[in-house]
Amino acid sequence: MKYYNRQRAYRYRLELALELILNRMTGNDAVTSSSGDLSREDAEAFEKILELIPEINAYKKSTAQHIRKTAMLKGFTGLREYSEYLYRDSKERQYLHDNLTLKGTSFFRGDEWNDFEKYCLSALKSRKTVKSWCAGCSSGEEVYSLAMAMAVHIPETSFSVLATDYDEAMLALCELGTYPKRRLKEIPVRYRKYVTKTIGEIGISKELKSKIMIKKLDLLKDEYPKGFDLILCRNVIKFFSPEIRPSVQSKLAASLNAGGYLFLSADGNHNTHEIIGDPDKMHLTRINGKSIYQKV
After folding, report:
1. Averaged pLDDT for residues 115-140
2. How many CB atoms lie within 10 A of CB 281?
3. d(Cα 55, Cα 41) in Å, to the nearest integer?
4. Where are the domains of the chain?
5. Are the C-beta atoms of 159 and 132 separated by less than 8 Å?
6. How many angstroms separate the CA atoms of 154 and 116, rounded?
7. Element housing 198 (H / E)
8. Selecting from 3.40.50.150, 3.30.1130.10, 3.40.50.300, 3.40.50.720, what CATH number does the domain 113-295 have?
9. Residue 92 DSSP SS3
10. Could you tell me if 256 and 292 are in contact, meaning their C-beta atoms sit under 8 angstroms apart?
11. Which pairs with CB-CB distance under 8 Å and at least 24 residues apart come from 6-12?
């Protein structure tokens, strides 16, 4: 199924740009940690929005400021006015639901990639095939980082990457595989042979994109696919509340083959590299590094 739609991708890029502009205008470069930083009126309106869209209760309530920015971008005076509009307009509720999955990411994000290459990919080198899954793939940077790393470190191994997200706008950007030229600096030189260059943009080679299968999947609702040697869940995991995260982590572990690897985010602000609960019950053991587990 094709998810790329030029108008949708353009709209999403425009929203990203507007978000950055608004951050600079307001001097607010970071999302506030809780709804407690809002005025009483906005806090009450925020709770009403959570009632209107119950699915987002599974995500952290740090979304309060994000919702307020969305309201400002659309011309509303505050969350109360926006919440009243949401009551009347089901399309806007769906738009906000989708927009809350806006996730910042980058190529080879975090220092753990060195450990991942050293301990995971070196161990997978002896296998004839490697089946991998990037769960919550966002706009594709993590997917293509993984594919580049496998192409370089396990060149004799046949590999595939399943890229999933529940936001079709993100899947469209992932499928497009085109990024601003400034993003090239995020990609180590040894991997750049898989990058194409045009005026103002970089892209991903057809050879590498042929290894990727893109699919819509909601980690909160849908059945998880099985039989993977490697799973990355590093973008979306920090958006889940501590109450939801153990269930997600347990189901990810169940999707791994014995001896497979689970590579989580090492975002220190959210401790998302930690398995909540008992890793032994998930048959997981941590290997070298903060955020990499192996199924035993």
Report:
1. 93
2. 10
3. 23
4. 31-99, 113-295
5. yes
6. 13
7. strand 195-198
8. 3.40.50.150
9. helix
10. no
11. 8/168, 8/169, 8/172, 9/169, 9/172, 9/173, 9/176, 11/169, 12/169, 12/170, 12/172, 12/173
Alpha-carbon dihedral 116, 100, 211, 286, rounded to 10 degrees:
20
Other C-beta atoms within 10 Å of 83: how many? 22
The rounded distance, in Å, linking the Cα atoms of 46 and 37 is 12
Instruction: Look up residue 238 and give its DSSP letter.
Output: G
What is the rounded distance in angstroms from the CA atom of residue 251 to the CA atom of residue 218? 13
Q: N- to C-terminal Cα distance for the chain?
A: 35
- State the pLDDT confidence band at 2, using cuts at 50, 70 and 90: low
With beta carbons less than 8 A apart as the criterion, state whether 183 and 202 touch: yes
Beta carbons within 8 Å of 139's beta carbon, 6+ residues apart = 103, 105, 170, 173, 174
281 alpha-carbon distance from chain centroid: 26
Strand partners, 212: 161
- Structure tokens that stand for 104 in this block: 């910042």
Whole-model pTM: value is 0.69
**pLDDT tens digits along 99-125:** 654 445 789 987 788 889 988 999 999
The structure tokens listed for 148 are 């580049």
**Rounded Cα–Cα distance for residues 171 and 94 (Å):** 17
Angle CA 72–168–25, to nearest 5: 25
